[in-house]
Here is the input.
Amino acid sequence: MVDIGRKEKELLPSAGINANMVVGDVHLLNELARLEKIAKQLEPDQVQRTELNRSVEAYADKFLNALPDMKTYVADEPATVPSPPAISNEPLGLEEALAFLASAVDKTGINPASGGHIGYIPGGGIYAAALGDYLADVFNRYAGVLFAGPGAVRLEKSLLCWMAKLVGFPESAAGDLTSGGSMANLTGIVAGRAAHEIKAVDVPRTVVYLSEQAHHSIEKALRVAGLGECVLRFLELDERFRISPDALTAAIEADQTIGLNPWLVVASAGTTDVGAVDPLDELAEICRQHKLWLHIDAAYGGFFVLCDSVKESLAGMAHADSVVMDPHKGLFLPYGSGAVLVRDQAAMHSAFNYHAHYMQDAVQDVAMMSPADLSPELSRPFRGLRLWLPLMIHGLTPFRAALDEKLLLTKYFHREIQKVPGFEVGPEPQLSVATYRYVPKKGDADQFNKQLIDELQIDGRVFVSSTRINGRFVLRVAILNFRTHRDTVDLTIEILADAAMRLAKT
Ligand SMILES: *Cc1c(COP(=O)(O)O)cnc(C)c1O
Here is the structure.
């Protein structure tokens, strides 16, 4: 509470004060005027805005101009990096703040903006998305509830409809724009739980079928959703790391015989590890026959459906109950953009709708549900704009070309690295992940490849990562950053060849 009883004589007369007011009122009005003046510092005027914008723009330009020569990986050195400035009553100022970012944030670790990032699953960061975020933040439309932000909700719905169509879902499908694939997987799985009306007591006899290759966010989602005690059946995979449909059928039938409740099949359209696409059509047919919920995690691979050369292998997504795809992977957006699509809107609605008295003015519309009724979130950023604006600015053509290019670059890498003496490769890439390793003439191959990764990290021009396949340490490239082109792949091969030769000599 504000202290309005002090120092009467210091108070200045101000507009709106009249003779009928008691002393306390005068204090109140004066205090409000004082606070208003300070609070208005949060609203820079046009001149100040221009100045702020210029500084931020100059920083961004400097970053983008320097990017081609920046390293992709720089080891962290906490001792040499300044600590974040203390939060205090006085401002630090934008220039100082930007200087801190340059010295402490945009410096070490993996540089995700770099085309040299071909490890894990790279993210994006197209510029047009930043402009969308900027605008969304300036006007701050409320995208959680239709009544509050009808234009924003409809625009997001149009993006979800577009994705549903890409996947082959009916128009009646529902969906949500999430912060990423993990939240999208959680949302899809919770919708599947609602559809099958799984109660807590049922959990220990409820069965989930998945691949060892499934992303860890699936098991995390099950745990978060209170389904951690479900029976997990890890299915046999073929030589390209895809779920064997026969193994699925056999497992479901065996579980039915012993009185368990087969519920969920989690398939992948592009595994994180090797980019494997499960036989979606066949798995969907088995799920249909046995009435199981089919969740397809296409966080990494989903948007490759835009590419003629692989869309056939992804066509089975059309028969899923829920599908996840990450615009911050396959559409090159900055981190913070996932999406989930659910064929049956009622399942999603029954999982997430909630009615609160303070929301009674928010009218419902069945044809146009509010995101809040289809997701765990209420207030949320207007996420759609960072996706919609780039699509409006660029059209789909360059997105599709970039994805086609990544597929070809991966094939190219897979072909070229085999030509370097000592390197062997994994299976022909299904999407844009390729695995390989160096086989030294003497010594332990796992150890050697681990050292090779260390060498590449010290070099830092590109960032590749590793995994374990069938107990072996293998290297991988995942080509998905929109700034990765042929020169990066050639450079990677050159660095790998040099480093392997050097190591082989020691
Ligand atoms: C990246 C990824 C996820 C997790 O998505 P986030 O956006 O990182 O939360 C889930 N599944 C697959 C297959 C992925 O590649």
